[in-house]
Amino acid sequence: MMKISRTLLSRAVALSLNRSTKLSPYYLNHTHNQYLLPNNLLGPSSCFWAHHSTTSANADGNLDKLPLPANLRHELMPRHVALILDGNSRWAAKRGHGPEVGHDAGAIALIEVMGLCAKWGIPVATFFLFSTEDWRRPKQEVDFLMLRFKKLLEDELENFNRQGIKISTIGDTSLLPISIQEVLEHTKEATKDNTKTQVIFAVSYSGKKDIVQACQNISKKVRNGVIEPNEVTENVIERELETKVTSIPSADLLIRTSGELRISNFLLWQLAYSELYFCQTFWPDFGESQFIEALQCFQKRGRRFGKRI
Amino acid sequence: MSALQIDISWSFSLEVTAIQAYRTMDNKQNRNSITSNLGHIARRCLFGILSMGPIPDHIAFIMDGNRRYSKKYNMDEGAGHKSGFIALTTMLRYCYELEVKYITVYAFSIDNFKRRPEEVNFLMELMREKIEGLIEEDSIINQYGVRVHFAGDLKLLDESVRLAAEKAMAASACNSKAVLSICIAYTSTNEIMNAVQQSCEENWDELRILDSCGAAYGLTDYSGNGDTKDRKSIVVTDIEKHMYMKVAPNPDIVVRTSGENRMSNFLLWQSAYSILYSPSVLWPEIGLRHLVWAVLNFQRNEFFVQKKKKQH
């Protein structure tokens, strides 16, 4: 009885939310949980997933494996999804707000998509949060992004552990403010034993610099006599890339929102054979239905890797 | 913009007729036909209008869809590849008329060696024949002053194809109006690996020379110029100078036909900021309208990039 009423209540909350008016709880000096009932009332399912909760939590609060949405097949699910979260500023500008509002709404979308990856058992998801070129943005915007990222890590740690999300990072995190580096290290340490999904945040990341640092490591090994130059193979280079934090470094699917048709110096080596999916939706509006559409499109594609099937 | 649309639609109808005739007639006959001349004039008008905006320096093509084209029209597989070659020469002609300086085409990937031996042999023979055709006096290369460059691990090719490639590169070395890079036995990861190997060997050679002078471990700065930077670690320029594609700048647009949306290990390093364009048309069916659309998209994007630069 309690389970049914909890499900009905969470469905009612989900239906009443209008995602396109996702305005900044943080920006308005509230926590993002303003729109969510406390977790101990709802149970493990958050209201964003409520209309798909068809199984119950077991006694210690872990989720049973939920079925995939309509028309998605388990055996064709990508093992590593890469996402370029583009369009926050344009989303906000359309509504007459500054970019900070867009980034805040983007953070909410990020949390939702991370949860979906865990829910659907996608082993690895890499999110392009901040590139090396983004340091050139106005200082106010960069400072806001840093603070918002820190807040996300602090507020969501419990959720990450509950959903089984392991957090890793790629990129030059030494350029981040010290306080954020500390929170990141703490988050990585606290989630290192989670196994549902590995979420990689690409922060201050450049695909070219990734390849260069791999090559520098290899040249040091050559200099120290560990390997000969002619023993440097593609596998050797791949093992030195920053994506060595995961056992699945190559992405099967890249999703870029906001309609831009570019990779913008994201994972270059790792996207060699990835299916590229570009959608017009701005990142803050990217949710479950858009993610399902991207996955359905991926599952229809014939991947040949240069051969003929 | 509406005047441009009228010009495009007018030249399209002429161009479609020209392409259909082109596919069934011999190249030399076709060049003199009235339809072809009219199409040429229309194109020049159109390109003149397009040239009022920025023209991309470098366009790269992934020529996908030859086999599906041959299936669609119940032709032999080989006929699909031959139609693909005709489409390539047509596109090259358009690009050179538009004064695009650098064109790169993905002719044969290292992964394609995994195909059936009969198909691989056919493709090798076709490539040898077409490469030898490039050296002829009336070829498109000599018409437009194009230097040909073959990018890839040429040691993996048949001897006859490799020799033909080297001859073509030597014969066109003096041409300077444009550069055509043909990626053959190429993958981007192989290109990067090769660049790293060569950089390491270069560093290793330097180290051995220093070692023989007793300065190998950086304890003595042999050059004596007091430079404290670590000169033995690889930097971006070391990798780029050993890339097969060092002859061309980064592509502005990467076009992949047949609707597939992936890079397939093509110019991964160089296309970090390129616009990706994936028309659903099969490669042998690609036409002027696709090139015009790609250039218009590029111009629109350039406008926003310049606007953003001014704001920051």
Question: Mind explaining what this structure looks like?
Answer:
The complex is a heterodimer of chains A (309) and B (312). Chain A has 309 residues and is an alpha/beta fold. Chain A is built from nine helices and six strands. Chain A folds into two domains: 1-44, no CATH class; 70-300, Decaprenyl diphosphate synthase-like (Undecaprenyl pyrophosphate synthetase, 3-Layer(aba) Sandwich). In chain A, helix 6 (178-190) links the parallel strand 3 and strand 4. In chain A, helix 3 (88-94) crosses helix 4. Chain B folds into two domains: 11-52; 58-189 and 242-311, 3-Layer(aba) Sandwich (Undecaprenyl pyrophosphate synthetase). The two termini of chain B are 29 Å apart. Chain B is of the alpha/beta class and 312 residues long. A six-stranded parallel sheet of chain B has the order 3-4-2-1-5-6, with helices on both faces. Classes of the chains: A alpha/beta (309), B alpha/beta (312). The interface between A and B is large, with 41 and 46 residues.
Fold blueprint:
The complex is a heterodimer of chains A (309) and B (312).
Chain A: H1 2-16, H2 39-42, E1 80-84, H3 88-94, H4 99-119, E2 124-131, H5 139-163, E3 165-170, H6 178-190, E4 197-205, H7 207-223, H8 234-240, E5 253-256, E6 275-278, H9 288-300
Parallel strand pairs in A: 1-2, 1-5, 2-4, 3-4, 5-6
Chain B: H1 2-24, H2 27-31, H3 34-50, E1 58-62, H4 66-72, H5 77-97, E2 102-109, H6 117-134, H7 140-144, E3 146-151, H8 159-171, E4 178-186, H9 188-212, H10 236-241, E5 253-256, E6 275-277, H11 288-311
Parallel strand pairs in B: 1-2, 1-5, 2-4, 3-4, 5-6
Helix pairs in contact in B: 1-3, 4-5, 5-6, 6-8
